[in-house]
Amino acid sequence: MNFYDFHIHSEFSEGESSVEDIAKRAKLLGFKGICIVEYFKNLNRMKNLRKTILEISKKIGIDIFIGFEAKTLVDLKKLVGMRKEYDVLLVSGHDLNLNRKAVQTKEVDVLTHPEFNRKDSGLNHVMARLAAKNHVAIEINFREILQSSKNTRSHILHNMTENVRLCKKFKAPVMISSGASSHWQLKDPKILISMGCLLGLELNEAKGALSDIPEGIIKMIKEREGKDWIRPGVKIVE
Amino acid sequence: MKKLKTLLPSLREKKRYISFQIISEKGEEFTYSDLESAVWNTTLDFLGEYGVSRTSVWLLKDCWNQKTQKGILRCNHKSVQEVIASLGLIDRLGDNRITFKVLKISGTIKSIKKDL
């Protein structure tokens, strides 16, 4: 089974580690591919990042994708406008309006940590249904659990369990990722699967959250790279 | 003290063995006691006293290899996921940053020792 981690920050954005260190560690832990995530403010560095990624990807033998994470509604709108230029579009969840907009937008691939810095889970039945309809994966972010402790961690775990329950009910895709900002925060796929199981996923669902859901996104990336693609659901047919 | 009579195989708790490797920053060699305290503290923090009692978790002392930094954890068959998830929450041993790599999960110690 091929496993992917689709939420890693390198030194290009808020992370500490170089892309090479991250790729080496991911390969060691048994990942088939990773996605290096950037913020909209660093858009001008995309050419450099793509060049670095291509070199490292060939050298180490791991698939590396470029993702952009929108933190505001304005960022999201701009990133949707230039969707063909990068691989994965993530939305940093925390604000209810942004969470809602993310699950409504077909161009979005992943809604990351919808419960971040919130008392509630940041996702309701309407949003879960929309996420299922538009194939927006809801992320379980391991770093959130790792960096919290005691009562904060228990609140986060509760909110994540709630989100998983809703996603299962409405058949919305769930994705598990490390959310690492350093190669030391990358986790073994078996550890991420186990955490998924503790949060209410069945074993095969948890494996799918690391394998099938990212593979679905990769399939979309390849479709988007084709000349015929215009926007989700629209392509030129001869 | 008089020893208890051994339970019948069908009455014994079903065990699982988890082999793992520690990847450290500068190739430090951690001792069994370093690791034991980290595993106990993290599992107790994450699962609580009651939760840990349900897992029957145990770090096997004679299977810890200080050179290769590989070891074996034992738990019951119902709590493999809890124990592995807890291992993921150990990101430091002392001042050193570490990562756990889970190598294999097995029902017998014989088969898991082959790969160590």
What's the short version?
The complex is a heterodimer of chains A (238) and B (116). Chain A contains ten helices and nine strands. Chain A is α/β, with parallel strands linked by helices.
Approximately how much beta-strand content do the residues of chain A carry? 15-25%
Question: Helix amount of chain A, in percent?
Answer: 40-55%
CATH C-level of chain B: Alpha Beta
Which segments of chain A are poorly predicted (pLDDT under 50) over 5 or more consecutive residues? none
Number of helices of chain A: 10
Compute the separation of the termini of chain B in Å: 36 Å
Per CATH, the superfamily of chain A is Metal-dependent hydrolases
How widely separated are the two ends of chain A? 36 Å
Helix-residue proportion of chain B: 25-40%
- How big a fraction of the residues of chain B is strand? 25-35%
Largest sheet of chain B: 5 strands, antiparallel
The CATH architecture designation of chain A is Alpha-Beta Barrel
Largest interface: A-B, 22 and 20 residues
What is the number of domains of chain A? 1
Number of helices of chain B: 3
User: Which architecture name of chain B does CATH use?
Assistant: 2-Layer Sandwich
General form of chain A: globular
Low-confidence stretches of chain B: none
What integer is the average pLDDT of chain A? 93
Major sheet strand order of chain A: 1-2-3-4-5-6-7
Comma- or semicolon-separated keywords:
heterodimer; A: 238 residues; alpha/beta; TIM Barrel; 7-stranded parallel beta sheet; two-stranded antiparallel ribbon; 10 helices; 18% strand; B: 116 residues; alpha+beta; Alpha-Beta Plaits; 5-stranded antiparallel beta sheet; 5 strands; 34% helix; globular
